[in-house]
Every structure is written in C-alpha cells, then in structure tokens.
Amino acid sequence: MELDGVILLIGGAARTGKGILARRLLMQQHLPYLSLDVLKMGLTRGVPEYAIDPDAGALQVAERLWPLVREMCGNLIAEQHPYVIEGELLPKNVALLRQAHPAAVSACFLGYTLLPPQQKVQLIRAHSGHANDWPGIYTDAELLPIIVREIAFSHYLQDECAAYGLPYFDTSHDFAAAQDKVAAYAKASFAKGPPPAP
C-alpha cells in the first residue's frame, strides 16, 4: 500500500491498548511510531528543567508535552513522513492541529467508560506481562485510585471527542474487537488521508 504523508495520533486513557495498537501498525503496515511515554520519561529524567511530573495525570502531562509534540508533528508533516504517535494527548489540541493540516492529520482516542474500577484492575492483572507493565509495581489497593482517575479521563475524552468531531473507541468490552476497529481506522487513514469519524 502506498502511504500518504499522514500523522496518526492515538490518544487515550492508560491501559487502553495504545501501545499494542502502535506495535501492530508497525508489524502489519511498517509504520514507525513514537510512544509519548518514552518522550515523557526522557524529559523527566534527562531534562528536569522541562518540569514534567509523570504522575500528575494525563490532563496535566498532555498539556505540558503538547508544544513539543505539535512541533514534532509539524516537522513530520512538512517532510511528508507517515508516522504514528501514541500517548497522552487531548482532543482540543489535536483538533487544532487537524484544522491547520486537514489532509495530513488523523486521530482517534481510546477509553473505558463502561467498567467498574475493580473489574478493570482484574483485567489488567489478567493480561499483565506486556511491555511497559507499570501496574505491576502497585498493589491492587494502590492501583485502584489510578484506574478511577483513568475512567474519569475516559469520560472526559468521550465528551471532548464528541465536541470536536474526533473518533472515540471504547475498549471496556471486547478489547480485541475494539483494537480491530481502530486498526481498520488507522489503515484507512494512511490509505487516503483522514477518514470520516466512525
């Protein structure tokens, strides 16, 4: 498949499968990707004056990272490099980038609004052992308030995506089917530019 110079931004709550999806696109479509977790931790440890608190929550981290991410995207767009960027992103910022580059930017967001926090913790434990398995350092009691926060963030993303006309995919139930839908959206994005919202 010949690829257009499109940036695909995948945002979402923690443990929605953003990284799994990006690695799938790398393997199946040979699309390079950047996890914003790598950028976040690189800045946290290597450039402490950038003042990122990785534990501050997705809203704050996404706002702090966005100026850098926006300029990186601008460079990739100018050079017409297809690229996937996944991590802490906000619909309002992504919508502005899409407005500036409507033919070159596609985006979607993932969340889980339909699960009780305890059930999400159980699912995380049942599917542990993947790359970046940070929940493993927490007890269930420590992880639970983080998941409560991420469920609230998922609701925020769902509402913001509706407001800005961006695709939102819920991974609460049938995770594999949700991943397939997002992968199909991504494939369409790189085939002919940003597709319409599902």
Can you describe what's shown?
The protein is of the alpha/beta class and 198 residues long. The protein is 54% helix and 12% strand. A five-stranded parallel β-sheet has the order 2-3-1-4-5, sandwiched between helices. α1 crosses α7 (175-192) and α5 (117-126) packs across α6 (140-164). The longest helix has 25 residues, at 140-164. It is globular and about 45 Å long.
Secondary-structure blueprint:
Layout: E1 7-12, H1 18-29, E2 33-35, H2 36-46, H3 58-78, E3 83-87, H4 91-100, E4 105-111, H5 117-126, H6 140-164, E5 168-170, H7 175-192
Parallel strand pairs: 1-3, 1-4, 2-3, 4-5
Helix pairs in contact: 1-7, 5-6
Multimerization status: single chain
Structural class: alpha/beta
Beta-strand content: 5-15%
Total helical elements = 7
Kindly report the average pLDDT value: 88
**N→C terminal distance:** 22 Å
- Which stretches are low in confidence, meaning pLDDT under 50 for 5 or more residues running? 193-198
Summary tags:
single chain; 198 residues; alpha/beta; 54% helix; disordered C terminus
